[in-house]
Amino acid sequence: PTAISLKAGCELFLRYTTRTSALELEDFTTAKKRLIERGNQFADTSIRARATIAELGARFIRPGCVLLLHGHSRVVLALLQRAVASDINFSVIVTEGRPDGTGKSMARALDALGVPVTMVLDSGVAYALERVDLVLVGAEGVVENGGVINKLGTYQIALCAKSLNKPFYVAAESYKFARLYPLNQQDLPVEHKPLDVGPLLPRNVTIDNPSRDYTPPSCINLLVTDLGVLTPAAVSDELIQLYV
Q1: Is 163 helix (H, G, I), strand (E, B) or coil?
Q2: Integer Cα distance of 177 and 98 in angstroms
Q3: What is the rounded distance in angstroms from the CA atom of residue 174 to the CA atom of residue 56?
Q4: Beta strands at 141-142 and 148-151: parallel, antiparallel or unpaired
Q5: Average pLDDT over the chain, rounded to an integer
Q6: CA 134 to CA 153: how far, in whole Å?
Q7: CA 77/CA 50 separation, integer angstroms
Q8: Which of 84, 167, 177, 228 could form a disulfide with 134 if both were Cys (CB 3.0 to 4.6 A apart)?
Q9: Model confidence pLDDT, tens digit, residues 105-161
Q10: Confidence of residue 73 (pLDDT cuts 50, 70, 90)
Q11: What's the rounded Cα separation, in Å, for the pair 85 and 88?
């Protein structure tokens, strides 16, 4: 898990496990037992979340359609596995996903499922989108306004998809709903990944390689979650329910 999804998951876990009248009891053994029960319930719900998303999201994949993926998302892979199990024939275009090569690992996983896969450079997204029917990505975090924080490059893909009127869908578990409200890219927590550009770059050139970016809700059509298929505007209401 990333720092954002881990923090959001831990906050929800604490909120869920402590939301019990057992904590007001003087009997510590009973209170402890109730906390463990609530914790196990939260874990079971989290495990089922991916299967629920796969069931809901597979309905958006039509026979013969072409999907564009960015990054290696376990919930996106589970969704596509469900589509394959339902005998839906589709093909996928994956981005290379530099610098950590997540597109390569996703391509290998899809190839093992028998899904036709094409890889494009990260800079070739706009070129490839002409033959794409929909874009599907995961998320490190879903923020209060319905936007998402995800692997660097997600935002530019969303902008291209919106320009070409291609649906942009996000698959994410509800425990990734975070109480964050970024207004721009500078509001994100700073995290950089190493990038080797070779020995020929002049020493005085600075490399800026953030690991993630923020995609605003205006670029997102739908979010497929274990709480249902949501519009970005519905996320704030769901967040309130999660923390009430």
Answers
A1: helix
A2: 26
A3: 14
A4: antiparallel
A5: 85
A6: 16
A7: 10
A8: 167
A9: 999 999 999 999 999 999 999 999 999 999 999 999 999 899 999 999 999 999 999
A10: very high
A11: 8
> Using an 8 Å Cβ cutoff, are 92 and 115 in contact?
yes
Residue with tokens 């209060």: 144
Which residue reads 């969303």 in tokens?
158
* Lowest-confidence pick of 152-156, 202-206, 230-234: 202-206
Residue 137 CB neighbour total at 10 angstroms: 25
Non-local (6+) Cβ contacts of 23 within 8 A are 31, 34, 35
* Interatomic CA distance for residues 101 and 185, integer angstroms: 23
Parallel, antiparallel or unpaired: strands 141-142 and 212-215: unpaired
Output 126-130 pairs: Cβ under 8 A, ≥24 positions apart: 126/160, 126/164, 128/68, 128/93, 129/68, 129/160, 129/161, 129/164, 129/166, 130/164
The residues facing 169 across adjacent strands are: 136, 222
Counting beta carbons within 10 angstroms of the beta carbon of residue 242, is it exposed (0 to 12), middle (13 to 18) or buried (19 or more)? Answer: middle
**Residue 109 CB: number of other CB atoms within 10 A?**
17
CA distance 125 to 68: 9
Place 209 in a pLDDT band, splitting at 50, 70 and 90: confident
Count Cα atoms within 13 angstroms, Cβ side, for 21: 0
**Do residues 102 and 153 make contact, with C-beta atoms less than 8 angstroms apart?**
no
**Which residues pair with residue 125 across a beta bridge?**
none
> pTM of this prediction?
0.83
Continuous segment of H or E residues that includes residue 119: strand 117-120
